[in-house]
Specification:
CATH superfamily of the largest domain: 2-enoyl-CoA Hydratase, Chain A, domain 1
Distance between the termini: 76 Å
Number of strands: 20
Radius of gyration: 34 Å
CATH architecture of the largest domain: Alpha-Beta Complex
Strand content: 15-25%
């Protein structure tokens, strides 16, 4: 090896350079001064050691003390908040957040149903709390802030790449502060770039009030959460699971998410805590009564599903994602086809001839969709309508079905709102829609008017009108009043409106029609038997007028289908119209939702 150095160097300096380089590169070294032709110093490579090597090979180098120190710092961070708070988790039947991530994703680089691929921001707020930090004069366990109480990263979940966040309740009750907010926002913004779903594993008491400077009202503060939620909405599925009482700002993430799962005896969400409610209104109320799973699954409609425990919550989400694409550019996944749980040949016998007799729509669905594929959402809210995902010959579809066992399947305000949101989400993620219509229409009365039946009914009709995915409407039995509109009847751009022979389509049902049109004439008949006979005649005449055979004769509907063939008919129609394109007027957006 030849090396030139400055001409002004001394011979001693040349010899020193030669010796040092020879030792370092394990080769002979000649050092020249300036432009000289002869070397000023020559140094031979050191003799090999007894083992035949001059130095330890690079591939035998082990971790340094610096790396070991880093690993020790990481191990400390992974321990979470103060031990006394970790001890309390078992009393609440809750997992420590790192154990929760193991449940969801398995060990990092491990096997199983998923892997935690990487984490961002482990060292958030490290300088403010860690005893090895030069900024911390004295270690104080109560001020431990590992990862600033929020874990974010990416994972493989059931074969799907997802972004995730998870609150660490052992750190200031999972509250949010400046560094955690920064991590949350980065995760959301990266999801916009990647087009991958987001999992929110929430267990947060809200913003950290004593540290609100720097994150509350800033342009890139906690308020940006909901701006990003809005931008992500309809772009990638956002799924939230609640593991504790999420209050104030923390309660908005679950309601902004597309799907929200609560856990019995553990979850709650509310705009304010019971203590704040008492301070503001004087009302004394427990957290579960204020915003527990029963409240939001049955009354507010903010929860899609309620899990029995943490393992069940993961199972529910695992089932849900099987029906969803990664983003709005993709189609929903399909599965190998399976026959239905019950024979389609029993459909006609299931449906009573009388429009006033109840039957369970679940039984009809079980005879149409692939076995065990109906995944119902919001089953306890707006129960007059069923909503959920299923498969027909392996193809994912969203189902909107009236439920005759619940108030005859009349559409109440909650049911209309539930259906509107479901249709809107399904359309956003390219999931075809199947409407199973058996309803006397929208409910009437003073209470439903106060509950905004017109406003919420409008939203259901709007969502159905705006949906651009393939739609199939089946008139199972009753299709009275505006019910046929909300259930994607002929005027609402379905690919088909088909009916079973039990179907009826009319402005109202026979009883109401007779009362409205013939009340005076009937009241004029004194003989009770004669009146009863006339009522029956009028009823039969009216039913002939609204029978689907007349509707098919007038080409109001496309076809009357033998009930035993309904599954095959729907499969063929969804297959044929898979790539249908629908144009909507050019505009910024509608004003209804």
């Amino acid at each position: 090896m030849k090396v030139r150095i400055g001409a002004g160097a001394t011979d001693e300096e040349a010899h020193a350079v030669a010796a040092a380089l020879a030792e370092h590169v394990s080769d002979d070294v000649e050092v020249y001064l300036g432009d000289a032709d002869d070397p000023a110093a020559v140094h031979e490579a050191p003799e090999p050691s007894a083992g035949g090597e001059t130095a330890e090979p690079e591939d035998e180098l082990g971790p340094t003390q610096r790396e070991e120190q880093l690993r020790e710092e990481i191990r400390d961070i992974l321990e979470g908040g103060p031990e006394k708070y970790k001890a309390r988790l078992s009393e609440q039947d809750k997992l420590f957040v790192r154990d929760r991530l193991d449940l969801w994703f398995g060990e990092e680089d491990g096997d199983g149903a998923g892997d935690l691929l990487f984490e961002d921001g482990k060292f958030a707020h490290f300088d403010a709390w860690h005893p090895d930090s030069p900024e911390v004069e004295e270690a104080d366990d109560s001020n431990r802030l590992p990862a600033d109480g929020l874990i974010t990263g990416a994972a493989d979940f059931e074969g799907r790449d997802v972004h995730f966040m998870a609150n660490d309740f052992t750190v200031k009750a999972g509250s949010m502060a400046e560094r955690g907010v920064e991590k949350f926002l980065r995760m959301q913004q990266r999801a916009l770039k990647t087009g991958q779903p987001v999992l929110y594993l929430m267990d947060s008491s809200g913003g950290r009030i004593d540290q609100q400077s720097g994150f509350f009202a800033n342009r890139e503060g906690i308020g940006k959460y909901y701006f990003n939620h809005s931008r992500l909405s309809g772009r990638v599925p956002q799924i939230c699971v609640l593991y504790g009482p999420c209050i104030a700002g923390a309660a908005y993430t679950p309601v902004f998410a597309d799907f929200t799962v609560m856990v019995k005896g553990m979850s709650a969400m509310a705009i304010a805590s019971p203590r704040m409610v008492k301070m503001v209104t004087g009302e004394e109320i427990e957290m579960q009564d204020l915003g527990g799973p029963q409240v939001h699954a049955e009354e507010s409609g903010s929860a899609d599903l309620v899990a029995d425990d943490e393992e069940h919550a993961r199972e529910l989400v695992s089932n849900l994602v099987q029906y969803l694409p990664d983003n709005s550019d993709e189609k929903p996944p399909s599965q190998p086809a399976k026959p239905p749980a019950k024979s389609p040949e029993g459909i006609d016998g299931l449906i009573p001839e009388s429009p006033n007799r109840a039957y369970d729509m679940h039984d009809l669905i079980d005879r149409v969709v692939d076995e065990d594929s109906f995944f119902e959402l919001k089953p306890e809210y707006g129960k007059e309508i069923l909503t959920g995902y299923a498969r027909i010959d392996g193809r994912t579809v969203g189902i909107v079905a009236n439920q005759p066992t619940e108030r005859a399947g009349a559409i109440f305000p909650d049911a209309a709102e539930k259906a509107a949101e479901f249709v809107w989400k399904s359309d956003a993620y390219n999931i075809p829609l199947l409407y199973l219509c058996d309803t006397p229409g929208f409910m009437a009365g003073s209470q439903v008017e106060k509950d905004a039946i017109l406003e919420k009914g409008k939203k259901m009709i709007y969502a159905t009108s705006e949906a651009t995915v393939p739609k199939q409407s089946v008139v199972v039995r009753k299709a009275y009043g505006a019910g046929i509109y909300a259930m994607s009847g002929p005027a609402y751009d379905p690919e088909s409106t088909i009916a079973l022979p039990s179907g009826e389509i009319g402005i109202m049902g026979p009883e109401a029609a007779i009362n409205a049109v013939y009340a005076n004439k009937l009241n004029a008949i004194d003989d009770p038997e004669e009146r009863k006979q006339r009522e029956q005649e009028l009823r039969e005449e009216y039913r002939e007028d609204i029978d689907v055979h007349r509707m098919a004769s007038e080409t109001v509907i496309d076809e009357i289908v033998p009930p035993s063939d309904l599954r095959t008919e729907l499969s063929n129609r969804f297959d044929f119209y898979e790539d249908v394109e629908k144009d909507r007027p050019s505009k910024k957006h509608g004003t209804i939702l």
